[in-house]
Amino acid sequence: MFIASVLGKFTTSRIIVYHCFFKRKYSNSNQIFINGKSYEVDSWTNVTPKIISYIGKNLHLQKSHPLSLLRERITNFFYFHYKNNRGNPLFSVYDNLYPIVTVEQNFDNLLVPEDHVSRNKSDCYYLNSKYLLRGHSSAHENELIQSGLDNFLIFSDVYRRDQIDSSHYPVFHQVEGVRLFLRHELFSLNPDAEGSIDVFEKGVRTETKQEVHTYDAARVVEYSLKSSLTALVRHLFGQKVRWVDAYFPFTHPSFELEMKFNGEWMELLGCGVLEHQTLVKAGVEDKIGWAFGIGLERLAMILYNIPDIRLFWSTDPGFLNQFNVSDINTNVKYKPISIYPPCPNDISFWLPGNADEFSDNDFYDLVRTVAGDVVEQVNLVDKFYHPKKKLYSRTYRIVYRHMEKTLTQEEVNKVHRLVEEAAERSLEVKIR
Ligand code: PHE
């Protein structure tokens, strides 16, 4: 929302187009219906049916999706590094909060000034003047803090109107982290000892602290924040980072963390010490804490060598299956899939003996040997036991795809037949 937000153009005529579209497509009145709820269309409405269709896709929860792998890795990092005194994870995780939020949630609670660019129609998808698709996960800070939570992570899809290129997409994903401390948690050594340190004072705002915080408290929170995030990035990338000062309306001091990528420093996240006023708005007066927000796509693109942000939306198994790993820490390096069309062909056979004497990997190796690089994937799609014949069956789908040309069905049939013959010969199966 605030990081590199680009002012786009938005004209009244486009609003009218959306208006008409909604009237035709969604209702006969001036309403938009989403998940059984209706929203009055007004002069703020700029959300499109296409954008609405992304609601509920939840890539970050999709099995074997790179964003889901990253979610698990980040969650594990926090679970492992932060435990309560009973040894249980300190942070609770929210990964399915509803993306339609109020202007209050997205901006007001976070002290975003009335005239801040991030509120512009050109930057957000508004349902109407009251509701919008969240522009950042920070929109949920207030409600979670208000519900009594001190340590939490939010994984969510966020929506921003932005340019279209290999690293921008109107829907992307973020993880937000929040950690709050009471005085004795911050200065846990000996909080009641004489000369112990206070968290609050009536002081002045400086570059490094807010007026209500003592210098010492602000420094300790800043240290906690920076060391957590440095450790997270080291855990994921094993790389050096640097800190630069930043501005967010709801944190002070604020920072961005940068990492060297392809020889250049690249911004990975925004964070800071929460403005005390945001806590007061959530009914919390006696705590101090930090928050951060990370864009997951950017992280995943670096981590897994994914060249284009559109790939995250790919339903091509050639993309998704590369992330189908049993260990989430596997160092997957994405290999570009061919732009030529895939040709899936199934192969079914009876096994020569018992099911447990047959190994899938043997078949995969055979396919590799016989068909070579025109095979993009092989997947087991069906298996059963035929009680009358007393035979076990297997069906695999082989996806053929050439990297440099479109394969004809005739060419594929030839290779496929070779695979069948080889399987009968060396695995002693019987093609059905
Ligand atoms: N919400 C901010 C953004 O999307 C990131 C952020 C989160 C900054 C939490 C500070 C604290 O740009």
Automatic annotation (TrEMBL):
UniProt-listed GO biological process terms: phenylalanyl-tRNA aminoacylation
Role this protein plays: Is responsible for the charging of tRNA(Phe) with phenylalanine in mitochondrial translation. To a lesser extent, also catalyzes direct attachment of m-Tyr (an oxidized version of Phe) to tRNA(Phe), thereby opening the way for delivery of the misacylated tRNA to the ribosome and incorporation of ROS-damaged amino acid into proteins.
Keyword RNA-binding: no
Gene Ontology molecular-function annotations: ATP binding; phenylalanine-tRNA ligase activity; tRNA binding
Name of the protein described by the UniProt record: Phenylalanine--tRNA ligase, mitochondrial
SMART domains per the UniProt record, alphabetical: FDX-ACB
Cited InterPro entries: aa-tRNA-synth_II, aa-tRNA-synth_II/BPL/LPL, Fdx_antiC-bd, Fdx_antiC-bd_sf, Phe-tRNA-synth_IIc_mito, Phenylalanyl-tRNA_Synthase
Keyword Magnesium: no
Subunit and partners: Monomer.
Domain Aminoacyl-transfer RNA synthetases class-II family profile: 155-317
The FDX-ACB domain, residue ranges: 338-432
One Gene Ontology term, aspect cellular component: mitochondrial matrix
Enzyme Commission number(s) of this protein: 6.1.1.20
Domain of life: Eukaryota
Catalytic activity: tRNA(Phe) + L-phenylalanine + ATP = L-phenylalanyl-tRNA(Phe) + AMP + diphosphate + H(+)
Class of enzymatic activity (EC top level): ligase
Broad class of the protein's primary localization: mitochondrion
Alphabetical keyword list: Acetylation, Aminoacyl-tRNA synthetase, ATP-binding, Ligase, Mitochondrion, Nucleotide-binding, Protein biosynthesis, Transit peptide
Cell compartments where the protein resides: Mitochondrion matrix
Protein family: Belongs to the class-II aminoacyl-tRNA synthetase family.
